[in-house]
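A further point concerns the way the authors explain their paired sequence and structure data. The central task, working out the structure tokens from the amino acid sequence alone, is never made concrete. I therefore recommend that a typical entry be quoted early in the introduction. An entry of this sort, consisting of the sequence and the corresponding backbone structure tokens, reads as follows:
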Amino acid sequence: MVDQSRLWDARTAAEYDTPGEGMFAPEVLGPTAATLAGLAAGGSALELAIGTGRVAIALHEAGVAVTGIELSEAMIARLREKVDATEIPVVAGDMTTARAGEGYSLVYLVFNTISNLLTQEEQVECFRNAARHLAPGGCFVIELMVPDLRSLTPGTGGTLEHSEPGYLLVDTYDTLRQVLVSHHVRFDPEVDGSREASIGRTPQRYIWPAELDLMAQLAGFTLESRWADWDRAEFTAESGSHVSVYRLPTLDR
């Protein structure tokens, strides 16, 4: 069993934020926060695996009361450098079991983070924990990639996802267990020698959309919407990711 708290250590937390770029670019965060604020509908929100607060801070600034659950103490410490506990309270713990109250209008889990849970059982428990926190009629939103197994050539088990001077990203697949491991290789491009390279690995259990929908049903949710991105583009067979909105029944049903 992988200790996820060790993967998300102080070094990772320090390097995680890229203000104004990548995941932190306004064109990414703006639609994310706007969509989540609309789904919160004036109520409070809970972010599972809140990390360093990338989305939570933007949502808080949009006027939504946000609480978080986070396993990594290092990520919480980085969040606390930006906002204090009176603005965004955080419960330290696992997103499958930790409790942060109840009655939320919205629970959300972004950027493939449910895949950090490496078994189907844990992923189902994540749905059930989300349901425990929600008020009747509340919704659970998940942002998740669609596995691109079509990119695997016959006889190979991996793909080169990104290459730039000083960095390579290689993904390897165990298709029997639905486990993808991202290998982050960093090196000095000016030095000729493999001893100068370092490598970090992050395992994930990928989930097909239909499997995700079944997990939701087991926890009492129904699928309300599915988009290709936070701008609500149409989800198609060619989409590389999706934003899925699941809703609990209301009391009068």
Observations:
- The first strand starts at residue 45 and ends at 48.
